[in-house]
Structure formats: structure tokens, C-alpha cells
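input
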Amino acid sequence: MFCRLYSVLLLFGSLLAWGQSGFELDNDRKKSKIPFQWVNNLIILPVELNGIPLNFLLDTGVEETILFSLDDPNEVQFSTLEKVKIKGFGANEPIDAYRADHNSLRIGSALDNDHKVYILLDQEINISSSVGLPVNGIVGAHFFKNFLVRIDYVNQRLIIGKSLQKVKRRKEQFTPLPLYLVQNKPYVKMKGQQGIKTIDLLQLLDTGNTDAAWLFPAVMPQSFLSKNTIQDYLGKGLSGTIYGNRSRIDGLKWDTFMLPRPIVAMPDSLSMTHLVQVTNRTGSIGNEFLRRFHVIFDYAQQQLYIRPNRDYDDPFRYNMSGIEVKHQGLQWIAKSQRTDSRLTYGDITFEGSSTSIRDKIKYQFELKPIYVVANVRPDSPGAKVGIQKGDILLTIEEKEGHEMSLDQINSYFKQQDGKSIEMELEHLGNPYKVTLVLKDVLP
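output
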């Protein structure tokens, strides 16, 4: 499955520690359920920061809470601000940010009244356009500190509680696994399978990563890496755009669970320039893999519990079109509706005297999304039919683009090999039509 990485993988060095008391449940509750939005393989949580409702990405791949987008920069009030530098995936230099202490952050029934937030109000790292809804920030390791957190991908909810019994049903059977916390980030041991070769892996569990897995080529045996790869845009990190290759491997084995033919991404060395590498780390596991399990994190006991869910046997798919679409602003769309309740036959409306009158039409204007092409992979099906970066998506299979979500649009590009898709786009004000034929180059 073709997905992009949104996790910023912050590296604050010695600044990061369990210095704050952390989240607690209201009124000494023992458990709580928190619904989330599941968009483009990302977990989006409703939060309140200093009393202001926002949307945050839940990301186990970061340590601190980050605010990177606000409609009104003065919307959230902070008592103190201190300038710092941060860095992450991508090829650019570290960037300036601000640290704000002593904030109130609420997520469902969980509240932290002394929360630290790092502020980067920079549209270059704003992921809202790639998700299709407002996303204001990221919450990471501190949310997992004081209770067990169960991610229920099927029902799109978190269950948080003080004990294992509170976050699972009595008859549910979970497999316990060791969880390794390094720099307050969760790592697991797995095995990778390629042909007859099996290798040991140390993978970061990263819920901010939309791919199934990342593997770092520099620490992979050359005989393990597939020669059947495509060069691709992998996403954005804090320090810039991330590029690399995609390929399949024969399997990823997690304890006794073997998932066949996952699609893995391999970031290039330039994108990893500012990454402080953890000893023996081989890559990351993202939501396209994790969504096949019920997963319970127990940071305090450094324990993980997993159980396959109904999506366990889903094949790993990816975007075979070679084009990436993003949300870019809103447009007014006029919709007409008849306001007359009298008898209508064809285009003629009749009054009681059988005298025809003109139909009365009311136009209602609605704000709808604009979708544009963000990237086109060279030599891909999209490139071959002439689709270019910046083109506006008008229709897919005669359905209006503005009536769909990004998830619905992307689902068209992840169908079977050879599938034809009729599309209409606009280039520099000129509409055009194409027939795009999906091609699986990673069979």
C-alpha cells in the first residue's frame, strides 16, 4: 500500500525526559474510551489545548507535543515561550521552534495541567492538506506514560486504563511481547523474510508513519534488498522532503504472526542526514502494518500486547497511479433545488387553474474542497497520460472530486493491476480527460 510518512521524529536530545507529571483520568476513573478519526492511515484525536479545541495526530514516533498549525496564531494563549532548535527526517538544516511550559492539554477524559508544548507555526510542515482536514499538532510519548493505551483500529477508538483488565475484554486472548523504550520511543524485535534469507530487525513502532514498514538500506544486507524497486516521494519530515525507494519483501514476522508481501519504503541517505540513529535500529513499523492488530501499549512495564483483528489478512496495496493528490483550499459550489411544492410534470409546473408557470429554483452555495496533484512519479501511469504537478482534479469515474474525501480518492488508485480509471483534470485553466491504467510495478 502506497502511503506517505507524516511522523516528524523529533530529536531534542537531553531536553526530553519524563519531567512532567503527565496525563491523569478525570475523577479517578479506571478507564476511558476516546474516538478518533482514521484518515489516510493516521490517527487524528480531538484535543483541547488551553481550552481551545484542536485536532492532534497521535504519533508514537515523537517524544514531545508539537503545535504546527493554527487558524489564528493568537487563538491559543501561552504563559512563557523559549526559543529552541529541532531537527528530524529530511535533508534541510534544523529549524527554530518555541517551547511553552505549563499548558493544559485534554484528550477525552485524560488531562495534563502541566504540559510542555513545542510550537512550529510553519505551513511547510502542516499536514492538513495531505490529510484533508485540519490537523493542528502532534502528541507523542507523554500520552502513553501513565496508563495502558489500546488502539482499536477497527472501531476507531482508543481505550485507556490503569490495568490490562480495563482495556481488554475478559475472553480476549492477547500475545504479550517485550517493548523496548529508547529515548522514550517504543521499539520491537521482528524478523524479515526475503527468499530463503531471514534477518533480525529492531523496528520503531511509529503510529505517525502511514506505510507498512521502513527499512534503512545502510544497515540491511544487500542480498536482502529487492532489485525490483521504484524511486518515490515518501513524504515530509521536519527538516525537509523525504525521498527513497519502495519494494516488497516476502514477509514480516512478529512473534508467531507472519504477514506476507508487505510493501516497504527505504529512505535515501540524504533524508536521514539529521537522524540520530539508535544502535541496531533497522527501521520503523507504521500504521499500514499495525492496523491489522489490536495493539495495547504498556510503557510503564515495557510490555506490548497484540491480537490480530478482522483486517489481518488484508493484502498490502499501494497507489499504483503514481500521482499524489492533496487538499488545497476551498471553493464555492452552487447547488440548485426547487422551492415550489406544486404539481410538476417535466419542466412545467401547474397551478390549480392548469396554467403553467416558470419553475422557481433556489441556489444554495456550499464550500467544497479543491484537490490538486502534489507529486507525479516519473514513468508512472499518471506521468504517461500527461498529468502534471499542480493540475486540479475535477472528476474520477464521472464523480465530482469536490464531493469526495481524500481517502475516497486514494482508494481509486489502490485497486487491481490493469484497472482503468476515467479522470478529468484542469491544467492552467484548461480541462482535459485521461484514461489512467493502474500498473503494479511491485508484483
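quick obs: Residues 176 and 360 are 66 Å apart (CA to CA).
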